[in-house]
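Standup notes
- HV: blocked on the assembly model, inputs below
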Amino acid sequence: MHIDKDLVAASATPLVLAILADAESYGYAILKRVRALSGGELEWTDGMLYPLLHRLQRLGYVTTEWRTPPEGRRRKYYALTDDGRAALAEQQQQWLAVTRALNDVWPGSGGLLTALGEA
Amino acid sequence: MEGLEEQIAEWRAYVANAPAVNGHDVDELEDHLRNQIADLTAAGLTPDEGFLIAVKRVGDLDTLSREFAREHSGRLWKQLLRADDEPARSASGWLEAFAFGAAAAVAIQVARLAAGFPDDEPTWFARNLGLFVLPFLAAYFAHRRGLDVGAWLVTAVPFVVAAVVVNVYPWGDDSDTEVIAALALPVALWFVIAYPYMGGSLRSHERRMDFVRFTGEWFIYYVLIALGGGVLMGLTAGIFEPAGVDVDRVAEWVLPSGAAGAVVVAAWLVESKQRVVENMAPVLTMLFTPLFAVMLACAAVVYAVTGLGGAFDRDLLSVLDALLVVVLGLVLYGMSAREPSASPQWMDRIQLVAVLGALVLDLMVLGAMIARIGDLGFTPNRTAALGLNLVLLVNLAGAAWLSARFLAGRSGFHRLERWQTSYLPVFALWAAALIVVLPPLFGFD
């Protein structure tokens, strides 16, 4: 399914922040997780992911560290900071506001907010 | 597997060539590629097929470069690519630079002839000097960035307002406020030029930083052109004088026009060499920051020990203001070339020493100045100097605080950048206040 690029761009930051809130990770693993979470609908390119990660680092939401995992090459790990957690909470508020509005205006999607645990 | 390694190495070289992608980024992308290939070969594809699909998934290289460039626009300053929202400009564009430069040269000659300079010296000529030259620079950028009519009008309005204010105010004879307004006018108009330079919008902090970089490089190029012009005039005088040519008359024509035209030419040089050559201002900054740090630390200690008392006079305040401006320049240009995500380095520490030294000196002089004003009262010169001092003091204090936090690891470098780019309007407003508010306040005296 084609997803509007604005929607992909808007959802990128909350997705990455939420994935990193669980545990620190590196670029490729984040990409695979996104693919899995969206059932293959969201296919991000490197050109999208890495500049975003760099931007989050510049804003102080994530910290980075180069490490060598036991089985492979050196790679760059990203971890969420407290500022990042605050930003994630704010993103959640924003998305909640938007989905609430959509839920009200779309008939038959009462399941949307139930699924989000808000009903 | 050898074939695969070769292919990855080739791909890596190709990606490394993209503007705005640095060494670490290439490592990250390569690691990503290898992970992807490993997954695909595990799923049953051959290494070659895996490589092809993985490269495809990395995404088209132009888009990759553009996205990286949008994020790391500071790296672009020495490289080729322009951001997505700007149309690609022809490589040289020297013709438009020449046209606007020539227009400025002509304008100033017309004004000079009308003023009868240097025989007479009407004050209106000196007062309006900025207005004869800088509108052409603004027009050059408005044209180069392809601004629409609305943006041209917005650019023109401050120039018109300045022209009206500077000429309508009833200046007294020999008035200090007139001199101050005349000096502040080019500074205020320079900030107005930021609008067309930034392409018609003042919001973006990255573009404000670009304007700061432009100012530094422009200044250096202008000085170089002025020196070259000086040598040329000197040699011309030497050659033509024995032949009986009146060199002074020639100089009257050539010097003002040259100086005016060079304003636009220097701007064109900065724009065109932005793509090719390392910026000079940060290099000079790296050279001079340690020297200034030592000098300021020593001066602060000396004045703290001996006390200010007799040494204080009006000249000291002017020198100190000049010193603060230089320190601000060092801070700004050191910052403009720095990789924002790098961790604190020794140069940052030295800069902090320089700023702290300047601040200590400034506070001592400020105390003495306030006492003096308490005794002798406000005058236009003192008020202007004091105001400039306060404006710079707040800026450097903020910069020192944020720098200390950054060095302690408590906050990110971007806050320091934000502080400086957010403070730029304060300078603009101060210059405008010197022109518009100060004269009426002191009765145009």
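- HV (later): unblocked. Confidence is low (pLDDT under 50) at residues 79-90 of chain B. Residues 95 and 190 of chain B are 23 Å apart (CA to CA).
- Next: hand off to the docking folks.
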